[in-house]
Amino acid sequence: MSCGGDDSSTTTTAPASVSSAEQQSLDLTDVIAESLDAIDEFGAISFTSAEAKCTADLVVRAIDGGRLIELGAASGEDLTQMVWSPDERDLVFAAVEQCVDLEDQITELFVVDGADPELAACVAELYAASDVLPEALFSTEPDADLDGRIDAALRSAVADCS
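Structure (tokenized):
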């Protein structure tokens, strides 16, 4: 995780000399960070304030502000409910991956469900490395094919770790 820091504030104060585009980016970063910090879970992933700020900053750097506004980011739309192109989804997932310890959170989900901690950590490592996780986090519609691929990725990880 490359971002972190103080969880005490997600508000960014811009110097008086910033351009309107820079101010828009700062505003979008704040709104996205607040929306991530406020949701209980993001496809079963939760964010601390620092992780939310880190993710929001990277998303705003990676995706054009106009596109983010078009998708509803300025109004606090949940990132998981936005309809991303596959390339955009990969950029947003990369931001989440850089700022949040996904393996740790996935492990925690399995342990809470009763899995052995060592097995859970192994399965989480393999599942987090799978190509299905980004799509699973950003799925906005029921998708039987995706559900099958998630199930197959988890079954494969369990088999490899057992």
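Residues 57 and 120 are 31 Å apart (CA to CA). The mean pLDDT is 84.
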